[in-house]
Fold these 4 entries.
Entry 1:
Amino acid sequence: MDFVTKGSRVVGRYVETPYGTETVRAYVPPPLPPDPPIRLDGVQQVLEQANQALGRLDGLTGAFPDLALYIYSWVRKDAVLSSQIEGTQSSISDLLVFENGDAPGVPVHDVQDVSNYVAAMSHGLMRMRSGFPLSLRLIREMHEALLSRGRGAQQQPGEFRRSQNWIGGSRPGNATYVPPPPELVDECMGRLERFLHEERPDLPVLVQAALAHVQFESIHPFLDGNGRIGRLLITLLLCARGVMTEPILYLSLYFKTHRAAYYELLDRVRTRGDWESWLHFFLTGVKETATEAAHAARRMMALFGQHRKQIEALGRPAASVLLVYRQLQKTPILSIVNAAPKIGISAPTVAKSLDHLSRLGIVREMTGKQRRRMFVYEPYLAILNEGTEPIR
């Protein structure tokens, strides 16, 4: 396959492909790594800063009282942010209300999309922890979970596309970007999989993650859900390569905040081979996101420690109240009827415990109802909510 060069950098090629009554030009990215090799001297400083920030964040995993609770909540925050980039209006509160079996304040299909994202991420993590490699098969399995229910269910869940897709515009002929034609998707993804499995001592892992993300987005192998799976790929690759011991870095907030620059830089890679500008942007995102996540984690630990002391001072009721409080750390919005079986204590005991937590100012009843009451752990939810305002 003959690829085009821009300056000295191979940037890919365009192929003509039929769509309806017109012929369109579809972009086919060259294999990774870039040719000639990326010049890392210009990003060395930010690469070191990103690695240091990520190391500090990863170091907190041993200090967190219950890391599983932190991951549980952070995956949900990323699910909301990543889905917002794709146009949903769901918040973390909407998702938690939905998970409690009540109607959220936004269209149900928006929240279903977010819930599916949580399922896709959880599936990927579970499979990798059991020793399954990061592979095309795993990517397809995650995609199947992502689109298994709701409005994406008709978009070939778990299958690479068999028709042409595009980004922007009403058809490929007036689109902002047209990915490879469907008959080349398997070949392009096969090359990406080989890159994911190669030992590349010349390329730091963060650089490999940055390259893989762009390549996946350029191939756009699915009819729907490419952006969300592409963002998950970053976290999973860093875990697979041992840069993170746990999945605690998510770049969706950074990409959401800087989405105009994000899309522009993806385009510059495709049209100019400007990988260096993309790398600087990506590594800055890792540095800032890891630093912010570490700060949030410390605030969570301080909050949990403060509230635990207040609960322990209750005396005899403290044991059952602490059980309910632990569930609130996992799901900061909960109802009595759903919490009781999860915690393993009776509904009246849950209700009494929540009354104690209300008097301590730790939770607030949010419905104003006498039945099917729901309680929110507002100080904790406020930390999780930072940056999750829907895009308008």
Note: The mean pLDDT is 88.
Entry 2:
Amino acid sequence: MLRVFIFLWLLTPTLHAAGLDADRQLVNSLLAISQSRMPEALSTVDTLTKQHPNFRLAQLVKGDLLLARAQPLHTLGNTGSSRNAELEQLRDEARQRVRAATDSPPDDKIPVYLLNLDDSYRHTLVVDASRSRLYVYENRAGLPFRVADFYVTIGKAGAGKQKEGDNRTPIGIYTISGFKTPRELTDFYGSGAFTLSYPNEWDTRLGRNGHGIWIHGSPGNTYSRSPRASEGCVVLANDDLTRLGQYVEIGKTPVVIAEQVEWVAYDALDARRSDLAAAIDQWRQDWESRDSARLLGHYSPSFRTGSQDLRAFGASKSKVNASKSWIKVELSKVSLMLYPERPDFALVSFEQNYQSSNLSDRTVKRQFWSRENGRWKIIHETSL
């Protein structure tokens, strides 16, 4: 088993993510083992454990190296004892770290969710719960490019949060809403916490509850936690959380959390982007027409905004449109994001400049669009 473990690491010439120095040192140690350079292997992992004495996985590898001087190794953590829960957690962490190195998403593919990002979004964070990985994408003229990734821990019960206390990490699209410094927190949260806007409007509509879902650091005595160990938060090593901070804008940076990220080629997004963008532009044009029937055709029967359902919303729109002699609607800062786990569901955000014969107004809006019977329709709307 140890040979397989080493071989998997050997398959990867480089680690893609910036800032994975601890991982790199661990890889270098295993490379030295595979080439029978045992003193160098031990020296490398020894340096790593001195830098991060609380890195339990590295300590386990070091222990195996020392044990290998006396006997053959059959598995990672060659204790020879019965199944140990803590040891299994370390093996799970090793598997996920190995997977990140040997099965990294190709550079020519991106998460399907990032259809179009307005230039005001500098970076987007994407969490793949199945891989225990957080990916950082830089926005370059609307196209995302991966610039970093980090090992993370998610909820003990996995992803798909529904209610308070279920120990699950939510699936959805959120915003980093704030940052809590170590002074505001206990040591449990390590070097700080980025707060997330969970529950969002869609979560609330579906009856999902809970609070305090954060991206935070690790306790001082723990370099990293096992893949599933939190109460629903996304947890990083403290130095990784610090590195992540350079990509975060409070109140701005989107965070996509998926059970398993769907990766697609850049050009594969074109058709999906164009299809949704065309539906949005047609909605805008039909609003300008003041034809209420045409406008309301863009809304789902289950549409809601605030306390209004489609019937109440439609009556209000018809009354307002009748009072206008002309309407002009311009959309700017438009971002289009497909929702995780729902291929025909999207979050659309934009700045709306509304002008009419008797009113001018500028509003930031978030809309959830759903494809129903082959046509995109608005199912939920919030004015910010």
Note: The longest strand covers residues 360-372.
Entry 3:
Amino acid sequence: MDISPWPELSWRIGVEVELLAPTGLTRESLALRLAKDVGGGVTRFFHAQTEPSLAPGVEVFDNLTLGFRVEDGAGHWVASCVDDLTLQDDLRIAAAPVDGWFRVLSDDRRLLNLTKHLGAADGTLLDALVPVAAAFGTEVEHFSEGMMRVRDAAGAPVLLGAPLPGERERPCELVTAPLDADHAQQLDNLLAPAREMGFTVPLESATHLHFDATVLKTPLAIRNLARLWQTWGQTLKVLVRTNPACRQLGDWPPALNTLIEDKAWLGLPWPRARQALEQVGLSKFCDLNLVHLTLDDPDKDTVELRILPGTLDTREITMAAALFEAMLLRAIAPEPVERVARRKFRRRHANGFIRQLGLPQAVEVYWLAEAEGCSV
């Protein structure tokens, strides 16, 4: 593939691309292919997710499903292939479970963390549950259709286990290791095999970009970024053609704006600013996810852009990354960003915004052309 149209990026970025395996293949199939390409191997692990509960009085169930970590010959993480419960409409819900695929459920995430620590992800469902049952001094209960349950010594339910239903082995969120250099080439090394194997873009799919947040941890940078997003976020969603079927998007809580516009905000040291951000009710499930700024967790130290549509096109992803990287560079500049009301998409406004970011010429031309083709 010709890489000349691909932009150069300087930010440390992790990419998540939501894909769907063709019938007969699974996310493990892609992981095995990627491992072969890098002369490495695949490790199966438990991947945690949350879904709404249908049980009365229980808001959500936390799940463990099977993920596949790809490492190169030196043992370095390259990518992971995991499930994504938001991908549903392309699947045959009535399809029979595939042998060896299962999930573990609980209404208490701490019990799933215990399962991740004690249970075996590379075995059967029974291998996952028996060590947990033993820790509670009980045995795994067996029911029809492969269902299993763990209860504690007092009879209270701890875990449920079940074969994975309805083609849930086919969704594949491809999660890259952080990319520091040669972003486009490294990303295409992962996407090209998926294209060759017939992986497709699901109906509800999105692409998420995680930008390293190290240099964003100042009150001014957060205010600048928030003002940029509040003004131009809707324009950006039109420009990048956000998938209307994508789930789990939305705005920040109003309390965030109240916080960052308070006259005391800019004078806060970062630890106090982080604590204040933690109190405003941020959610991961929004257009621009700032939750990781509040966690003080070096493994999740990112700002996450969630509005990009699903795609297997490396150029589309890296052009979007270049556009947002320019916004982040403006956010960390010492000059305050002016507070401007939210802009609805207008081509002349979009063009002005694109030109003010100081983008490389090829990137600017790309996005001006995209703006020209937008209709709302």
Note: Residues 241 and 309 are 7 Å apart (CA to CA).
Entry 4:
Amino acid sequence: MYPRQLISIGIHGLLLHKLRSLLTMLGIIFGVAAVIAMLAIGAGARQATLRQIEAYGADTIYVKSRKLVGDSLRDAKRAGSAGLSLQDVAYLKAACSFIVDAAPQTLLDNKVSAGGREPRSNVVGVDPAYLRLTRQVLAEGRPIGPGDLESGRRVAVLAPALARALFAHRSPIGEVIQIGYQPYRVVGVLADLTGAEADAAEKGGVKVRTRDSSRDVYIPITAALEYFSKIRDTADSDKDPTYHKVSEVIVQVQSMEILLPAKRIIAKVLKRLHRDREDFELIVPLEILEQSRKTQDIFNLVMALIASLSLLVGGIGIMNIMLASVTERTREIGIRRSLGASQRDILGQFLVEATMISLTGGLLGIIGGFAMAQAVRLFLGWETVTTLSSIVLAVGVSCAVGVIFGFFPARSAARMDPITALRYE
């Protein structure tokens, strides 16, 4: 029998019992839809993670100050360590040829005000390399330059949310703001955060920074260290004016291939400079990405296996309904065999019917999975990506389910004795 005839007979068999066929498909529809939706959520999370790493820089290492209190701080001071400092940054750039650039920053606990407004803000002392290494773009004005750094000039660059909070809709360029009791002139405004950086600031995920950087005000780090001081409290390194003058250093290396060796070398150099006191920690965003990928892959696998249980249930439903169909059509099988149909023809007829049920359910499941992924994106705000590979996988699995679970009923039908089948009432 030709394949076209087999398909035609299979479709005719399905249409004779439309409701029964539809109910049989439900397990396949829900299973395929669930698998596609889960894979779309996993692919979306992976893509968002990649964009976050690109925003932070795949070739960067973050050196952060580690808080010391009580005896740990006193011990570090006795050993001769002063925590992270500008001298550390200068030494690293001179001693490590693989470092392209390094940008120190220091966080200040001071209020920012202008025109009677005093919104929530973060005062950050930086050098000219900071905005470039953090991939931030100016909306207007200019960045902090080398001249500002050398002279400790009182200039400031505002992040977008803080600029709007202080000056509403007018341009803040040239305006004067108060940081603590010191006046600073605004010379630049940053563009709004987009993509991965905004996701990291709002939702979490792969986060390297712990503050909302859309409310930062950046001033030259030399001015920050000259005009502002921390609270004198020798029991806390974060408040001690003689310790950790630099809060964080962003180090850019030559390529991502040397990130791990570079991390080890930087750690050794800083440990020697700090007299073997580990009052710092190194964070590599790429390492966080790898850990996140592994976690996501395990999560995706578990969720896909759970969703696949629906496919197993659907396959059992197909086998059950095909066995019932074989019993109902025993006399038809006998007539066809007596007219010359071979066992292969009967096997092909019922196998095609089972595959058609499964394949149709798979196609409807693809539509349902895409709809579920879009609903997750719209209502939960999660990024989802429906890939071609997931669709091909769904179609392949649905066909396989039809063949595997339809084979036993089809073989039972093919092996029937024609004479016994003709006598069946």
Note: The two ends are 27 Å apart (CA to CA).
